[in-house]
């Protein structure tokens, strides 16, 4: 689960962000503590704390004194906007580069994407 | 941050051999350090001088702001788990733990008992009849249960199997989270400990060549893989620490974090980026330092 070459605290923060985006951690619920994250990922607590601090600075988590960290209202929307902006860089550029290498035109790609979307929609049935 | 150890200009000679060459660094309170480097690099020498089990040839060492030699105020707050700890003839683990309990003011007997269970250590068997792994377990248990303000683990895992090493890492993190303290862990198994250590000190041939946050080192270098001509064009002007070629494909390790612009340029030229693990980086850095280009390469690692 831990990848090399990327600051570990960023990976920890991204893990928490993913749970907020997919709804496992709804807004106003308690986020995992530094020690819980450290022992789950088997990492140094200071590294986990750095990841949490980053999320607090970003306005994704906030601290309730004496209780712990909570997911801020509006956190999910904030993360969605951020991830959508990064989507082209992270996913589309590598896709285009590989397609170019294989001689697939943008039109070919659109067709593949449409095909796949239809197939996976039938496979999974209707999801909320 | 408060420094609990300050070392300045430390030099150690064994006859003609220069084991430590003008080494300076400091260790911050309540932090887990990895002291990494090849055999004979000087790791054990550093630890034994810091714990007053060896003498410096020159330079200054301060532990809790004081000279450690024959200084009970300092030494009672330290625990040094040596790779080849000697125990008295006929001593059993039980004797060792009872002695440790008298010596370390923060000794936690419950933790020691639990670890004995987990490592399945026979308490009454003479230590000289224990296996290598069981002998290491005795040291690990003392190091953890002592809860000393500064604990040194010198290659503590010899003979421990993967399961036992994982127990050690898990209990270390767990106990550290509840009772923060300074831990200095020397290890060859860099990949195994890279997530445990907050800061990394790399020793090479008697000198410290890297002293940094582990997280900062993580994206310090990258492997660029692809068509040799394209790779060469990209790495021109960067610090190259390693190069491998297979036919027309090259894999080159460059120093420096990649910017978003770098990444776009790489993907536009069809070049792949693969990460460099802490272990790979240290292997490359310490390999490199043996060559003639040592000085310039090391500069970029600081």
Describe, in plain words, how this protein is organized in 3D.
The complex is a heterodimer of chains A (128) and B (302). With 128 residues, chain A is mainly alpha-helical. In chain A, 65% of the residues lie in helices and 6% in strands. Chain A folds into two domains: 8-75, Arc Repressor Mutant, subunit A; 87-122, no CATH class. Chain A is built from five helices and two strands, in the order αααββαα. In chain A, strands 1-2 form a two-stranded antiparallel ribbon. In chain A, β1 and β2 form a beta hairpin. Chain A starts with 7 loop residues before the first helix and ends with a helix. Chain B is of the alpha/beta class. Chain B folds into two domains: 3-216, Rossmann fold, CATH 3.40.50; 218-301, Alpha-Beta Plaits (2-Layer Sandwich). Chain B has twelve helices and 13 strands. In chain B, the strands form three sheets. Chain B has a six-stranded mixed sheet, with helices on both faces. Chain B has a four-stranded antiparallel sheet with strand order 11-12-10-13, with helices on both faces. In chain B, β6 (150-154), α6 and β7 form a beta-alpha-beta unit. In chain B, α3 packs parallel to α5 and α4 (109-118) packs antiparallel against α5. Mean pLDDT of chain B is 89; it is low at 291-302. The interface between A and B is medium-sized, with 26 and 29 residues.
């Amino acid at each position: 689960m831990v990848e090399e070459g990327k600051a570990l605290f960023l990976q920890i923060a991204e893990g928490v962000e993913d749970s907020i985006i997919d709804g496992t951690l709804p807004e106003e619920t308690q986020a995992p503590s530094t020690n819980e994250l450290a022992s789950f990922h088997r990492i140094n607590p200071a590294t986990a704390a750095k990841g949490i601090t980053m999320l607090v600075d970003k306005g994704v988590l906030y601290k309730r004194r004496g209780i712990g960290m909570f997911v801020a209202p509006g956190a999910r929307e904030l993360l969605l906007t951020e991830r959508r902006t990064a989507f082209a860089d992270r996913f589309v550029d590598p896709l285009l580069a590989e397609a170019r290498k294989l001689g697939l035109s943008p039109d070919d790609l659109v067709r593949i994407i449409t095909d796949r979307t239809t197939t996976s929609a039938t496979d999974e049935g209707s999801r909320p | 941050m408060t420094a609990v150890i300050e070392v300045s200009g430390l030099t150690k000679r064994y006859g003609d051999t220069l084991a430590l060459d003008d080494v300076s660094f400091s260790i911050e309170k309540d932090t887990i350090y990895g002291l990494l480097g090849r055999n004979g690099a000087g790791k054990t020498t550093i630890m034994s001088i810091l714990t007053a089990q060896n003498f410096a040839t020159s330079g200054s060492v301060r532990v809790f702001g004081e000279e450690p030699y024959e200084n009970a105020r300092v030494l009672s707050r330290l625990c040094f788990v040596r790779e080849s700890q000697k125990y008295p003839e006929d001593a059993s683990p039980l004797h060792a733990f009872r002695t440790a309990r008298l010596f370390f003011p923060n000794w936690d007997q419950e933790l020691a008992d639990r670890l004995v269970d987990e490592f399945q250590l026979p308490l009454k068997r003479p230590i000289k009849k224990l296996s290598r792994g069981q002998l290491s377990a005795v040291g690990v248990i003392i190091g953890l249960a002592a809860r000393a303000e500064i604990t040194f683990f010198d290659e503590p895992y010899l003979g421990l199997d993967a399961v036992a090493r994982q127990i050690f890492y898990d209990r270390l993190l767990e106990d550290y989270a509840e009772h923060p303290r300074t831990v200095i862990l020397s290890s060859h198994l860099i990949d195994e400990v890279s997530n445990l250590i907050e800061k990394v000190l790399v020793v090479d041939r008697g000198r410290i060549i890297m002293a940094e946050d582990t997280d900062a080192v993580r994206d310090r270098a990258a492997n660029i893989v692809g068509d040799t001509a394209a790779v060469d064009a990209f790495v021109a002007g960067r610090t190259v620490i390693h190069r491998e070629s297979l036919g027309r494909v090259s894999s080159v390790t460059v120093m420096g974090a990649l910017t978003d612009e770098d990444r776009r340029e790489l993907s536009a030229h069809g070049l792949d980026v693969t990460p460099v693990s802490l272990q790979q980086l240290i292997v490359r850095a310490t390999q490199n330092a043996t060559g003639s280009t040592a000085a310039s390469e090391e500069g970029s690692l600081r």
